[in-house]
Amino acid sequence: MLPFRSARRAALTVTLGLAATTASAQGTQDGFVNSGGARIHYRVQGQGPAMLLIHGFPLSGEYFKNNASVLSRTFRVITLDLRGFGQSAAPEAQASVQMYAQDALAVLDRLDVQKAIFGGMSMGGPVVFELYRRAPERFMGMVLIATTANPASITEQHLWTGIGAQAQANGVPSIVPELIKDMLTGKTRTQRPQLKAFLEGLMKQSSLNGVLGGSSTLATRPDSLPTLKTIRVPTLIVVGAEDTVYPPAFSQKMDQNIPNAQLVVVPGAAHAVNIENAAAFNAAVLQWARRNALH
Hints:
Blueprint: E1 12-13, E2 29-35, E3 38-45, E4 50-54, H1 65-71, E5 76-80, H2 97-110, E6 116-121, H3 124-134, E7 139-145, H4 154-170, H5 176-183, H6 186-191, H7 193-204, H8 208-220, H9 225-228, E8 235-240, H10 248-257, E9 261-266, H11 273-276, H12 278-291
Parallel strand pairs: 1-9, 4-5, 4-6, 6-7, 7-8, 8-9
Antiparallel strand pairs: 2-3, 3-5
Helix pairs in contact: 1-12, 2-3, 4-8, 5-7
């Protein structure tokens, strides 16, 4: 048993090391599905109960590679590239949580997955809330990673629309320096340049349509606070103690309002908590699932 302290309403502080386990995944399957005019890429690893992981902005399903390699020993891990990101094509520069949710359901339907644990990182969180509003019967559990249920404030709206405008004016690579500083702690950016380069590479792969659609989605996302009290499945909330995009206070608010939630705060991690300390994240998910979602 790994050294976790559990509490119902208090955060769990994870003290595992930074090194991520990167075991080779078994039985990787890649595919595409058409959804609402977009061609959506997905990847499946492992066997067992299904777990769908939805990435944040402006990343791709590859963001979860060091999580899927471990979690796929227990779960059938499904990742997808949201429209305009990674290997998924976006026919237009428009998107919304509703469109992303439709794409995710199209992937699950293609794979004949009726029930899953749904996980969302950052922008993926509002997509998971939308999925729950649409199809709560398909949820075995929920994992919320470095995200928020709040709608964007006026300040945040201007931030995301500005990111989109910059990408349109100067190209997608121009937004990477603006975003990378909040993804990882300063210590990690300095001491683990390969991880910084990995994230930068994912961002640079994004299409302009993807970035414009994603930035608009973040700026106009619906208020999911009323959804929280309706959630009736085991929920794990994970946040980095040094997250400056959606600081721990946002996760604490979700924890207080979701009836069956558990909060894990990972020290020494920023917004990209599940790869900055992949070992801690993977262990937290497995322990939570064994106690809750897999019963």
